Every structure is written in C-alpha cells, then in structure tokens.
Task: structure prediction
Amino acid sequence: MTSTASKLSNFFGRWRYVLAALLLLGLAVGVKFYFFPTNKALAFVTATAVLGDLEQSVLATGTLQAFKQVSVGAQASGQVKSLNVALGDSIQKGQLIAEIDAMKQENDLRNTQAALLSAEALLGSRQALLKQAELNFQRQKELLTADAIARQTYEQAEATLGTTRADIKTSEAQISQARIAADTAQVNLSYTRILAPMDGVVVALVARQGQTVNANQSAPIIIKLALLDTITVKAQISEADVVRVKPGQKVYFTILGAPDKRYYTTLRSVEPAPDSIVTDTATTVNTATAIYYNGLLDVPNPDGLLRISMTAQVYVVLNEAKGVITIPSAAITQSGRRGAASVRVVNAEGKAEKREIKVGMNNNVNAEILEGLAVGDKVVLSEAAAPGTQAPQRPAPRMRF
Result:
C-alpha cells in the first residue's frame, strides 16, 4: 500500500509541473496577441462605374416674391367709411376696395360747379353787351361818314366795342378755369372710392375701417395686392459664380416644405448691381462683405402652393450629360491641375491596379468618364480593415494625481 501511494504521488507531482507550464504558455500567447496584435488583412472600399446622368450647376439661395405686387393707397384724406375686401380675397381690376368719407369732396365739387355757372352767366351778359356795342359802333360809323357827329363820339363807340370784346375773352378764360376746378373736384371726389388697379390677391390689410387717413403728407396704404398666378424667385448668386451664368439657362429650385419636388424654369435676368448699391454712398468697396447679384426667374403657380417670402434652394444648370459612365470624384487621382487622371481598379485577382482615364464633366461629387473604364468596373475609394476584424482595444492609461 505504501508503494502504491508513493507511485501516485510521483505521478501527480509530474503532471502538476506540466499543467503549470501549459498555463504559463497560454498566458504568454494571450499577452502577445493582446498587447502586440498582428497586422490585419486589408480590403478595398470600392464603387462601381455605372451609367447615369450628371449635372454641373451653380447653387444659390433665393426668396419667393409675387410676380407683380402693388400697394394700393388713398389719394384723399378722411375716415375709411367702408372696407369691402378681406385678407386672401381674389379681386378683379376695377372692383371697389374701400370708401372714404366724401363730404368735403362733395362740397368742393358743388362750389366749383356753382363758380362755373356764375362764369358762364357773366359771359352771357357780356355777349349781350358786345352785340349792343357792335350795333352802336356801326351806327356811329355811318353818322361819321355823313358828317353828322363829331369824330370823338365815333372813337368812344369804337373803344367801347374793343373793351367789350376783351371782357368776353376774360369771361371765356374764367369759364375755362372754373371748368378745370370743377373737373379737379370731380376727380378728388372719385378718389374717395378706391378701386383695384389690377387683378390679384389681397396679401395685406394695412388700414382698417374707421381709421382716418391723411393723404396730404404721403399716400397712405390701404391694402397690398399681388398677382400670385406667377411667382418670381430672386436668387442671390455670389460674385464668384455670377460670371458663369446668363439669361436663358435652365434653372430649377426646391422649397423647404417640399424638398423632393423640383420646379423647373429658365433664368430671366441677372441684375447688373447688388442690392447694396441703393444705400452705398461711397465709391470704395468693402472687401470684407460678400457680394451677391440677384438672378430673377419666373415659374407658374396655378395651385397656389408657392407663397411670398418662402426660401428656395436654386440650381442654375451650367452643363449636363445623360446616360454616361460615372464614378465618384473621390476615386480619381490627378497629377497637377492638367495632368493625367487615373484610378485604381480591382482586377480579377482582387488586387488594385492603376489605370489612366479621361475625365469629362466633374462636379466634385461624381465625374463623367470618357475613356478608360467600362460599366461594372470597380474603382478603389480607400482601404480598410478586412470584414470581421477589429482593431485591438487597449486599456486606457491610468491617470495619477
């Protein structure tokens, strides 16, 4: 029994050392892989050359405006007796918008009409005197010929005739003045009825019924009327891009409420000076301030979805190509500004090989490939760790304070 126990003790003693050695070996291997990882296999991030449409455009921010907008004001002073439209109403040209208390204008008209009647009556009286003076002059002329009167009597009759004729002309001038005054009073009376100058939609009510307006200083605005069947977009084009745009170019824009819907039209015009020219008094230019020129474009608005003061993202199309081979611009390497362009293409063995290409349109996002690539070729964008591998995570160093 003692011999058997001794053998067992020797057996387990030897295996204890073996197990300790295996444990130390495993620990060493773990430390090696944990703190000194091997290089991971690399794979390529690629993009496939495909057929697509390409566009090069100038980007601008725009504001929607009415194609035509007028401020309808009052040319007569007084209290707004009635306001016959509401905000958002569609009205026709000539439709009554508002009425101003017309008592003063009516009195002025009656006074001028009375003055006209008085001037006409005075003219009638002087015309009768003219006839009398003409008959008297003719009679005195005949008597003078017969040497029946003194020449002084004849000359007196002649002077009376001339004076009467002059009075007739004065009366005619007074009648003209009175008629002009009456017509002016009639026009002033018509100003108390404010009519729509065009078809449109009421976009603002500035005055209210019962409000007193004074037209002697400046014409007070009653409403603002806009034509919304067509909308004008005023796009701010930077000075760096304005030299590349011109009227007639294709344009489209989107609005914040419908970013996926494009509204297509053409560029109508580009204003020759920025808005700041209205307030600039000096000839020097502030180079610290960005300069923008307004490009104007019109688009139909039959459904009324486009509204005044909306913000638009505007794209002025400079060039476009349809159904061409395209790849991401990031895949292209070019030596110098006009040097040869090349890409790295993944071959059948999965390796990347350099290939020279000819680039057409490039909008810095995608590029048109004229020569060197075919549809389906995979071009290298970058290199990355192979799928399923991760960079080793090392513990953060402990901070001592």
User: Anything to note?
Assistant: The first helix runs from residue 2 to 35.
